[in-house]
Amino acid sequence: MKIIRFSGILIAVCCLFPTIDLFSQDIPAPADTSQSAFEFIKDDFIAASLDSLAGLRYFEGFECPSDETLKNVFGFTPGFVPVYADSVYYNRLKKLDAASPINLTYNQYVKDYIELYAVKKRGLMERVMGLAQIYFPMFEEHLDRFNMPLELKYLAIVESALNPVAKSRVGATGLWQFMYGTGKAYNLKVTSLVDDRRDPLKSTIAACEHMNDLYKMYNDWLLVLAAYNSGAGNVNKAIRRSGGKMDFWQIRPFLPLETRGYVPAFIAVNYVMSYAAEHNLRPVQPLFHHFEIDTVIVKDVLSFNQISTLLNIPVEEIEFLNPAYKSRIIPATKENTYVLRLQKKNIADFVNNEAQLYAYRSQAEIEKEQVLAMMKTVTQAEYHKVKRGESLGVIARKYRCSVNDLKKWNRLRSTNIQIGQRLIVRPESFEQVTYAQAKPKPAPAQQTAAQTASTQETTPNNTSAEAVATITATDSAGAEPEIIVRRENIYHRVKRGETLGRIAGKYNTSIAEIQRLNNLKGSIIQAGARLIVGTTEITETSGQAVADNHQKTKEKNTVFKYYTVQQGDTLWKIANQHEGVTVEDIKRLNNITNEKQLKPGQKIKVTVVS
Fold it and tell me: What residues does 483 pair with on adjacent strands?
């Protein structure tokens, strides 16, 4: 054994067999083996796929020290890098070739990739070996089902270095690097939230189907690999240009540059994975293996944060096991379910708490939903740019609103603001609320109108009166009609998927206010629940009222729907916000003659409810 220095690393050259020239007559070699004809690109796409493992976030949580308990049959010290003579590589590959239907030949191209995997990128290769314990059992299961060579599992290492979220510069994605069009042809769907090309199981089945179809075309596995990488069109052109040759090594000069190194890399991976111990390579052990993973069916929308919080699973672990969900959201419905992969030890917790998982929303998600709800309801909002010396109080007075309004509209936790900050100062939106018709309970003749109102039962839609006030007014003819102002609750029926944040945004209120009105201690609500979301004033007049011509007319109890005028409102705009209401109706009900009479904050009648 002699020691040489290679790229700064001490390497032992083991001459287990007599050293022979790679291109002597004893070993078959390509027709043109001159140095000028050989093209090897350092750090090509294959090396780049290995490098992608170095930056994976989930590897930080899963990486463990190399397994020193593995049997070291060669007595290598940690970090020692053995390199062998060409004759050793040749004979080892000859043994592998004899046991495989794929032609595993040895030449300079293959040797260069053996050095890439076993020497230059050995640390990343040890990570690949660890990931292989998660993915290879699944690969082998489906390759066997399609009656294909099990050695094809190594192709995923060449394609993606077993990185399920790997993406090439041309858009190929996943363990098996499917392009969008090819993936679609094999039923791999891609949406804004889900990419089946990144799903380990679905992409593996698609890869098996695709390679099976290619084998029917070429009946040669090396040509299948070349076509898998560059497309059947490029392989067919290379066959024509070579004069109809059906051998990879003979058509290699006519293939795209990337594909020329693709097959040698595949052969090199076969060798390195089979003789890892001989090269002192030891897998970086993952925290779990293939047999420790199971699946559950998700029937409703679920985020990784919900699963992580309630089941106490790191988000990175969920993301690692479920790479197909691009935004950490599973967009499931009862009609369109999805699969979730978890460790087996977490499956029971998921099943036992499935309903709570669907209903749960973290505080961060609630706040996000509130902001989104506000963005939807606040259209054509008016903004103010904070100037030096201004405070929220000054700005609130300027725009005739309250400091609390400004804090709510802008999601401010305190009154601190910065010079140049843009604040929403007038959300031009109005959420219409359907008010129930008040039907007072018949009262004895001796009761006053105020007493009658105070003893009213709840209306058919269960709106209950919180407060009743009686105002006595005298008209110009001396009559004294009674005006009854009642404050009633506004209710909302919770729909599936709704949260307190979303409901609060819809009714322009806060989560805390809804919790107070309904005596809620937490934020979990059930579909079908009936919540108080606010209150409204309803005015009733009874007795005699004076018309514009000062003639006395008898009126029945009347309930009006009111609207608070906002900055920039016009009669036409207000009328359009209320179905069946015209500008003339508003003028008549409020004795308004022109637009100038409208003032922000003014409360006007918009229609008669009963």
Answer: 471, 541
- The tens digit of pLDDT for each residue in 506-520 reads 777 778 788 888 888
Place of tokens 């490098």: 51
Spatial distance between the Cα atoms of 300 and 358, rounded to a whole number of angstroms:
7
Task: Read off the DSSP letter of residue 461.
Answer: T
238-262 residue pLDDT tens: 999 999 999 999 999 999 998 999 9
Map residue 127 onto helix, strand or coil: helix
Provide the 8-state DSSP code for 117: I
Candidates 197, 8, 272, 221; CA nearest to 103 is: 221
Alpha-helical runs (H) found in 275-387: 304-311, 315-321, 344-352, 354-359, 363-377
Q: Which residues contact 137 (CB under 8 A, 6 or more apart)?
A: 290, 291
d(CA 359, CA 401): 36
Fold of domain 382-426: Membrane-bound Lytic Murein Transglycosylase D; Chain A (3.10.350)
Residues near 502 by beta carbon (within 8 Å), at least 6 away in sequence: 369, 370, 373
In angstroms and rounded to an integer, the radius of gyration of the C-alpha atoms of the chain is 38
- Write down the domain spans for the chain: 2-21+64-279, 290-360, 382-426, 449-608
Q: How far is the C-alpha of 378 from the C-alpha of 505, rounded, in Å?
A: 10
Give dist(CA 39, CA 28) in Å, integer: 19
Contact of 352 with 345, CB cutoff 8 Å = no
Same fold, 2-21+64-279 and 382-426: no
In CATH, what is the architecture of 2-21+64-279?
A: Orthogonal Bundle (1.10)
| Residues forming a β-bridge with 405 | none
DSSP designation for 166: -
For the record, the structure tokens of 179 come out as 């392009």
